């Protein structure tokens, strides 16, 4: 084992061949049952760099799991040479990492992805790096996906599942930003946030960050549950035939205007526009229009903060609005590999704000 593996190995219980280990005994109840969503504030109300938990959206598909911390264990098995399990106390005794990352909801998987939601926040997650635990288990050649299972069970959109199950690619899983998290903004994860432990996959939609995590398994194919086969797949917009499907994984470029506020009456023609931009890939420029996208201010005139982790990025620019009355402000982000927000018809289309000059 590498040095880091020895440091981690003393905290876990390795599983002997043929040994049967359950990771679901910690589930006490599902309470309340059924789908629940707490909508976020409007974009102009998300004016803090770090989003307080009270302002962060919540999405629960089948009900909130009530978990006993003292009996919780995480099982890591599948295509590995050294499967193991770990308790909550053992997990917290491992070297911890804090990552600042935007956290975005994809939206309803039963509706077309054609409406922008701006259901997003920017938070600090604390936990143990997923890649370190995977390395500790010694993955076998051919393991291509990491499946994650939560403790909740029930029905969503008239489909019953024995547990919530998602997958991510091994390539993504081995990146250093992914966490087995037990804190948000320096506080323990509560029940509705997926506590005591959840997966966090920065840069990918929140549906991939499995809550009430209890089981990770490495496999050579994609997970077979309804949340990967029936839900959270979409038509690939890059396919001209509109027939190829793709998983809901990476977040495409997105942005929102925080100031001015919608409908705001401004006393001066010179206006500072500022907001946030984010995506799986770092945003490299933000275009701003004051005439509903008919013309665009040069990106050179828009200040954009660089990204250090996976946090959303601040942009701001001073513009001169011509004449009194209504003006239509638009922000459009482009990432480092050339992906750009569409003007309409997609779940990440541009944000428009109307303001008035008195």
Structure description:
InterPro entries: Ig_E-set, MoCF_OxRdtse_dimer, Mopterin_OxRdtase_euk, OxRdtase_Mopterin-bd_dom, OxRdtase_Mopterin-bd_sf. Keywords: Metal-binding, Molybdenum, Oxidoreductase. It comes from Exophiala bonariae. Its cofactor is Mo-molybdopterin. One of its GO terms (cellular component) is mitochondrion. This protein is mainly beta. It folds into two domains: 3-247, Oxidoreductase, molybdopterin-binding domain (Sulfite Oxidase, Chain A, domain 2); 254-357, Immunoglobulin-like, CATH 2.60.40.650. Helices cover 8% and strands 39% of the residues. It has five helices and 27 strands. The chain has helices at 3-9, 88-93, 130-136, 170-173, 226-229, and strands spanning 13-14, 27-33, 36-38, 58-60, 63-67, 73-78, 84-87, 97-104, 120-129, 145-150, 154-156, 159-161, 165-169, 179-184, 187-188, 198-200, 213-219, 233-235, 245-247, 254-259, 265-266, 270-278, 283-289, 303-304, 313-320, 325-335, 351-357. The strands form eight sheets. A six-stranded mixed sheet has the order 1-7-6-17-10-13. Strands 8, 9, 14, 15 and 16 form a five-stranded antiparallel sheet that branches. The chain has a four-stranded antiparallel sheet with strand order 20-22-25-24, with no helix packed on it. Helix 1 packs across helix 3. The termini are far apart. The mean pLDDT is 94.
